[in-house]
Each structure stands twice: as C-alpha cells, then as structure tokens.
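Incident log, structure service

09:12 report received: a user says their structure output differs between two submissions of the same chain.
09:20 pulled the input from the user's history:
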Amino acid sequence: MIRLIAAALLAGSALPLAAQEQIASPDGRIVVTLNTDNDGVPFYEVARDAKPLIARSQLGFLLTDADPLRRNFALASATRAQGNDRWETSWGERRFVDDRHNQITVIFREKTQTPRTLTVTFRVFNYGVGFRYEFGNDAERPVTNIGEELTEFNVAPEGTAWWIQGGDWNRYEYLYHRTPIDAVSTAHTPITMRLEDGTHLSFHEAALVDYSAFWFKRMDGQRFRTHLSPSSRGPKVSRTGAFNTPWRTIRIADSAAGLVESDLELNLNEPNRLGDVSGYFKPQKYIGIWWGMIRGDWTWAQGDRHGATTARAKQYVDFAARHGFAGVLIEGWNYGWDGNWFGNGRDYSFTRPYPDFDLEEVARYARSKGVQIVGHHETGGNINVYEKQLEDAMALYDRLGIRLVKTGYVADAGGIISCNADVAEPCGAEVFEWHDGQRQVQHHLKVVETAARHRIAINPHEPVKDTGLRRTYPNWVAREGARGQEYNAWARFGNGPDHDPTLVYTRMLAGPMDYTPGVLSLVGDRGMPFSSTLAKQLGLYLAIYSPIQMAADFIENLAAHPRELEFIKRVPADWAQSRLIAGEVGDYAIFARQDRASQDWYVGGVNDGTARDLTLTFDFLEPGRAYRATVYKDTADNTYENESRHDIAYDDLTIRQGDSYSVRLAPGGGLAIRLAPARR
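09:34 re-ran on a clean worker, output below:
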C-alpha cells in the first residue's frame, strides 16, 4: 500500500480524501500518516521502509487566552504539491543544493458550533521530514498567544542518543551526554540518535523567526514533546495576524554520513532576501587579539595588561598582511569592560574607544595593509542598551570599512536584559529573557537586518541556535552555540578528546560554528594541556565548518610552526562540495572537501580518545588526474595525554582516483591533507 501511494504521488495523480492522509518521500521509503484519534486529537506517524520510526505523535497548542487547540478535531481537507529545484548557495559546505520533496497541507477542523482550524504542512524528502503549523489571519482573534506547543516526537525503535541539557544556566555550552534514548531528560536541539538497526535520526528546527526556540523534553519512555523557551511576557509566543511556526525537522539516514550531508534545514528556509553579499563578505580566515584574554595574559578592561592597544593591533595587522589573513579581531577596545560586565552590560558604549586604542587610526592602518578589522560588540546580555546604540554602532563600522562583526551575549541563561515594552521610556522596568526565547530571536534578526543595511556580516556568540537562516540572510555567517576551543584554556584537557568528533554529528548539523581552531601551542591558562595533538588542530579546519575560520593562537606561536601555518593559510573557508568519507557519531570524522575557487581537494578531520588505523580511499577525485598530496598526520605513537601531543609527521606523495592511503589517528588526534592537481 505504501509503495502504491508513493507511485501515485510521483505520477502526480490525486488521492481521494480518506479517514487518514499519507505523503511519501520522492523515493517512496519515508511515509508520513496524518489522522485524529478517538478523542479528535490530531497526530502524525513516520515510517521508513514500512517500519515505524515515529509512532503516533500528537499535534496541537495550549493558548493563554483561549481553549486549547488539542482535541475534538477531524480531518477536513488535504492539498498536495511537489518541489524539484536546485539552488546555489552564497557560500558554504557545497555550492549547489538539491531540493526535491513531496508536500501535503492538512486542515483539521473542530467539531463545534464555532469551529477553529489547525493547519499543518509536511514536506517529505528522501533524507527526512519537516513540518510546520500555519495560522491564518482570524479577524475575531487577531493576536495568537501561545502558552505551549504540544508537538510530539514518539521515537519507536530503541537506540542511543547524543545530547546536551536544555534550559540550564550555561546555554548551549556543555559536553555531550551519550545515553539510551529513554534516559534523555530535556535536551537542546539538534539531538542525534542512532537506532538499533543503524538508522540515524536528528531532531531540530528550521527558519526560527519571531518565535520561541524549543527544547526537546522527554515525557515518558521515548515520547518527547516541544517545550518552548520561556518569556517574561506570559505567553511564550505572541503573534499578530497570519504567521507560520518554524519547521520541526527530523533528519533520517542510513549512516552517519547521510546525516551530516543532509540539507534538510537549509531547504526549509526561504531563499536569499539580501541578494549578492560578496561585495562586502567573502569567506575568510582571521587572527585576533583574543586568545591572550581567554588565557588571562591580557585583559578586556583597562589597565597595565589591557589587550586592545593601538600598538598591539598594528602588530597583528602586520602579521595578517604578511601571511594573507583577511582580518584581525579586536576585543576589549570600547568602554564598558571595567568592573562587572558579565550579565550586566549597562555601561557599554559601542562607539567610544578606550584612550589607548585609536579606532580611527587602526582602521586606517589596516586598510592601508589590505586587512580588515573584525569588529566586536559584547553586550553582557543587555539587549536594551545594545539596541539603543545599534544603528550608531553599525554606522560607525560602516564608515570605517569594518565589514564583519562578532557580537556577544555573555550572561547566564534567562539573564538577557530587556525592557518592559509596557513601561514608557526611559526603561523603568527591566525584564529578563532567555537566550532562545521569542524576544531574543527577534533581537538577533534585528541585528542581522541592521547590519545588512550597512553592508556588514554578523557572527554572534552566546547566540540562539542556528536553524538555517544563513540561506535567507547570507550576512549571518557563523555563530558559536556550543563549547568552543576557549574551554581548552580553562581546565586540564578542556573539552576532552571526544567533544570535537561529537560536535560534527550534533551541533554542526545546525550550521557553521566559530570554533576558533589553530591553537598550535596546545597550551591554555597556567600551562593547561589540550586534549588535542598538533595534527588535530589542523584537522579542525575540515571537521568544524565555518566561512570565517580563526587562527586563534598568539601570532608568535603561529610563526613558530611555519609548516602548520602554511596549511592554515592555504585551507579554504568556502567549498564546492563536501563529503564525510569516514566516521561514526562521537568517535571520529574524516571529510573530503573541494575548494570552491580551485580544483584542490582537502581531506581530514578529528578523532576521539581511541587510537585508530584507517585506510582512506580517494574515489571522489577526478578520473585520470594525478594529485600532489601534502599530509599532516599523527606520529606512530603520539597521544594527547602527554608531551607527545606536540609531535607531528609529514608525508608527500602522488594520489589518483581509487588509490588508498593508510593512516593512524592518535588518541585526541587528527589529520589534514591538501590534494593539488599535478600539472598535466
């Protein structure tokens, strides 16, 4: 029956309205069923190859000013459509994205005297499912106040989950848990699962706009429900007029590679609204006055150890110009860092530099050297103060030719300082919001849109999670949203050796991350050692994608590793295509990526704490062509656990399509290979 339905959809024939509705993926393997139960509760189910993946899972809402949209519904109508498109990315892991799906929009209608409707649209791809609710413009109820969304995900088979806790104080910056699915509590998304039969799942959302992000909350067994991030305003979401919710997404794949290579969330976002941004943003690598503050050598605040001085900025600009880095990040240049700024931000000025930092002169000097300053706006989580200065701050950077800005929201979760909109200015009553609540989601988009008017790209830290909006707003180039490399400076072995190969299959499914690789010294604060070999620091450039890649170490340490620095200078930040050629969730990840601007390929990635011997094949190379391979790899016996972490081996050889190469990945190790076509 499932195959018959799929065949009918592919042939474009209409199906009669029945007691239930079904929609299949273009290849017929995934089938979604929609219906109501005996109480009139709308639900959906997902099967793959006729085996249940998502068992009966309810749909609906709790409202704060009306009866729930939950029960006493019946199927009223269903409309079908298809999509088959190929679109070009502004930048990213691949140049072209294929969008082929089948779609159904189902309307459930209440069985009451004055019936309301619940409209849901499902898009089914060969690699997953996305669905969203669609609210019309109800003249009698122009405002929709949502107390909670009741969407469920009832995972049918048993398996293993990789996840971080949602709703906790440190936002998204946690090490990942690996547990049975039924041991998950409340998780952030993406959350990744590997089922007992080897099927891989990832749950997330796409196109998060003017809505609260959801946490993935276990109700009982393996039944999960959306839990919307809270709001100070009562309703977790308040919208006027017609609107759509974000898409709820389920990636489905046979393997870890299929999960990583999926474009589900990107395809569910709207096309580019900004046009060609290449006039002011190009994928790039940068250095910065940052690692010294993270380690504690320098300070953001004024004083004898102030990091952002005019002299140091020019020193870093000179290094960038000499080695071909596009930009220099400068943090701590402006007033507001003195005293307690964490979760405060009331004293920040985004236009007034400290006395020992001449912003105008540094910007002029950088331009004369062909280098851009990467601007920085730390808010301390105070969006009330930032939004009042936002236009002036962006206009200043625009005038100085600063085209990339790192923003920051350092505050505990629930500590975003906003203004009660019901109180007249000046803000007489501060209120506190969550980093991923509706108010902060609105704020981030306001920053991105303001920046776009001034031809500036944005890279937020302590952000709301990525949901693919880089397609719609390609000046939203990266973000943090996980434990980055900075944690390696603060504790012995920092993030641990398995953190990076876990990020590949969890956080990185959401989108680019400003992880700040390239700490070649492998030393943090007070001599803290990294859970990384030197080769892994190079492999991070291939495993953790971003169109802005930092070489995060002190420039003296970068210069002390000339061969590794040469790789960092050459490795692109923009790719024509990307493939995961070896890897398993949480264990290791090896990518093959082709440069968008040349015929060069790069192969490499990261390993966990277990030594591995791999044999890599090069089937992706152009037939009949020889490539000169420059290899950076772990030695025969090094490990992250002692001083041998600094050891690295090199290899030079010729590789052709179909050749294989055996390599050892050390505990906490990695690999990086540049493959340049040989002259014919």
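09:41 both user submissions now match this output. Likely a transient worker issue. Closing.
09:42 reviewer note: The CA atoms of residues 321 and 370 lie 7 Å apart. The domain at 284-601 is CATH 3.20.20.70 (TIM Barrel).
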